Amino acid sequence: MKKGTMLIHNGHETEKATGALGVPVIQSSTFQQTDVFTPQEYDYARSGNPTRKALEEIAASLEGGAAGFAFGSGIAAIASTLGIFRRGDHIIAAEDIYGGSYRILSTFYERWGLETTWVDATDTGRVRKALRPETKALFLETPSNPLLAITDLRACAAVAREAGLLTIVDNTFMTPYLQRPLALGADIAVHSATKFLGGHSDVLSGLAVSRDPEVGKRIYAVQNCFGAVPGPWDVWLVIRGIKTLKARLEMQQETAGKLALWLSEHKNVEEVFYPGLLSHKGRDIHLAQADGPGAVLSFKTRTVSQAHNFLSAVTLAAAAVSLGGVETIASYPARMSHASMPPEERARRGITDTLVRISVGLEDAEDLIADFDAALG
Ligand SMILES: *Cc1c(COP(=O)(O)O)cnc(C)c1O
Known about the structure:
377 residues; alpha/beta; Aspartate Aminotransferase, domain 2
């Protein structure tokens, strides 16, 4: 089956008992045991719930893994996945991973004795140089946020495999519809399902999918220990969102391409970052590992006031954090996602006060361009 078909025919398209075209919401915290001496599949909803199980199986099949796990948020998925490591282990992480992932590793897990070295993973040589005997995992995200930097997943996963590490990839920006890290050699794909998978800015959820069933068992143990699981209604919204992922993402991506080109010719725009542009660094690597450039782009205006004016004047894009919804969202990394980063560090990474990130929604491209044109002055 092709990817679009798999989004619909995912093993849970018809409910066996009634023929309903959808997954039932099983709103129960506990399950009656017919024989207390014989374990049943479900006993308590933190340990397992049939609605959640459906999403976990759908996620595993879309990512091509052995086991999937659903969580109450993307960060819960990431924190729980990192919970499989132990004190004294060492992680190599890409320096421009999602801010919340940076925070978990650099504050929370650091305190528990899990050490992280931050590297520019777009340079595979630096990943290799950071290896230590106690290194257990490589944590990557590509394209990165907010500058859409591209990491070569095959090359990094090969370095990790050779050294016996697990490669974890945050695949939120691409979704399994556009990029499948496990097929490129990674071991675990993690997601904020809050973004494109849910797709409607109305639910918080996360996923982790493991290639190896044994690693899956370790993630399950943390899921059950931490209990950072989603409720069945939230799971149901994600399952519904996934059904329309192809239609949304294809359309959003097409509009993103038009916007990126148009922005790159605007007099008040200094630079546009979008893997679909010929000028984008790492574009060839990206297109060799993903089926499209996605629907997130960013750009720098020429002056700070142009960025401020744009954000206050734009009407068809909500000035907000988050991405991947049907509505276009404009965010300002310097004050939103990367506000907690010291200004020198932001500057070093190119996250200037002129940088604006756009998550392209389902509005008509012509309307967005007209609106952006007015807002850019
Ligand atoms: C939003 C996001 C997360 C965190 O997910 P939440 O659902 O907000 O907890 C992790 N990684 C990336 C790339 C994200 O965009």
